[in-house]
Amino acid sequence: FVEDRRPMTYLYATCTAEKDGRRETNWYSRSLRGGPDFYSAELIDRLAAEAVKRTMLLFEAVTPPAGEMPVVLAPATSGILLHEAMGHGFEADFNRKGISIFSSMMGRKIAPEFVTIVDSGLESANRGALAVDDEGTPGRRTVLVENGVLVSYLHDRISAKHYGVERTGNGRREDFRSPPIPRMRVTLMEPGPHGPDEIVGSVRKGLYAIDFSNGEVNIGAGDYSFYVKTGFLIEDGKLTSPVKDVNMIGNGPDSLGKVDMVGGDFELDGGTWTCGKDGQGVPVGLGLPTIRVAAITVGGVRS
Fold this sequence. Notes:
- This protein is an alpha+beta fold.
- 16% of the residues lie in helices and 37% in strands.
- It is built from six helices and 19 strands.
């Protein structure tokens, strides 16, 4: 028998503002594995201030021109793109069944050598952390992509037996009524050799994405579409106007291969992420340094 205590709490702030007859809405949230001590006055003030700030930015926002352009992903929250567009493709059941585009790529180079992607159950107090998974396997750190090479999938008991490898501690279920299946825990990209200012400064015309909503992913092909809820234009190496009404459209493996700069400013996000798969929802975490993807299709206004 194994036992794991998993307290969980979260706080979510939504702000709606009206200016000159126009309304905008945005939000901000924080979560962790913990109890009531989480709810400090400092946290509550921070949530309120950030929700208001992100909402008011939308009154100044512009819709960028449509087309393919460099995209810089901000640290922490934009790791949801890593989770959705790439992470699901690393789950072993999708590969065992030949669904994932990564099913034939084990041992192959899929990203530049300064890209290392990890899924971990050891991130203390993070929403996705696990001391043991739901099959009793101890939490561990699993390297998925090492120096650009795909080296592991995320395994539960069934897939580990199928591939003849050790379980990675990713057998997770929503509750006692659901079967364990391979799921992510805390998925992150490790820091790289570039400075965040260097990354932004390298872009003449592009997009800086901070937060997303309403994402859709085709696990098989890896195609994705995300709505950018908070972001800025990059013009001549500087952040300028905030943006709105913009989608990012791409392919996970293609975007991973086009990551050409990775910052040293890694941040673990503390948001309220819940991942859905096969009708089950489980809490997850994610993290990212500032990274640059050389080209992603941005859906905005046709120029």
